[in-house]
Design a protein that fits this description.
Layout: H1 4-33, H2 41-48, H3 55-67, H4 73-85, E1 92-98, H5 104-118, E2 122-128, E3 135-140, E4 143-148, H6 149-162
Parallel strand pairs: 1-2
Antiparallel strand pairs: 1-3, 3-4
Helix pairs in contact: 1-4, 2-3
């Protein structure tokens, strides 16, 4: 059974293939259609489209022809290219503080868990602070996940003093 991470990767591959194919087709045909005007432009566009053109691309181009907007096709193709590239990924900085040096496999596991949870590119830096006694403190952006033994003991001490 595929995990959530595997499903996202597979879906991303499909998305990129479909968008990439549509972009390639649009960019290839745009220069040929840019100057078309006149009464029978829809018929000429339909005839100019190569076999194998995706139905969505064909319908889009025919719609532009019907509305008399083919003179903007090259600008539309360029704009579609920027949409297809997607927004730039926002990198997150994470600092994982532990009481002892973590093994390489532990670092890989923690980095993967952080990436899975936050769904973005993360730069994880590992720091050692022996005063933690045990556990981890994970800082990601303005969030702090403190699961250190030092913090737990401090909480027990506060509870004992207030009782």
């Amino acid at each position: 059974m595929a995990t959530t991470v595997d499903a996202k990767a597979i879906a991303g591959t499909l998305y990129e293939a479909l968008i990439g194919a549509a972009l390639e087709q649009l960019q290839a045909i745009a220069p040929k259609l840019a100057g078309m005007t006149g009464g029978d432009v829809v018929q000429r566009v339909h005839a100019a489209l190569p076999d194998g053109t995706l139905p969505q691309v064909r319908n889009f181009l025919l719609g532009l022809a019907h509305e008399g907007l083919l003179d903007h096709i090259e600008a539309v193709a360029a704009a579609f290219g920027s949409f297809a590239a997607g927004p730039p990924a926002q990198a997150l900085d994470a600092v994982v503080t532990s009481a002892v040096d973590l093994s390489a496999s532990q670092q890989v596991t923690i980095s993967a868990d952080i990436a899975k949870r936050y769904g973005a590119e993360t730069k994880v830096r590992f720091v050692v602070d022996a005063s933690l006694i045990g556990g981890l403190i994970i800082r990601i952006g303005d969030q702090v996940l403190d699961n250190s033994l030092r913090t737990r003991l401090s909480a027990v001490q506060r509870n004992m003093l207030t009782s």
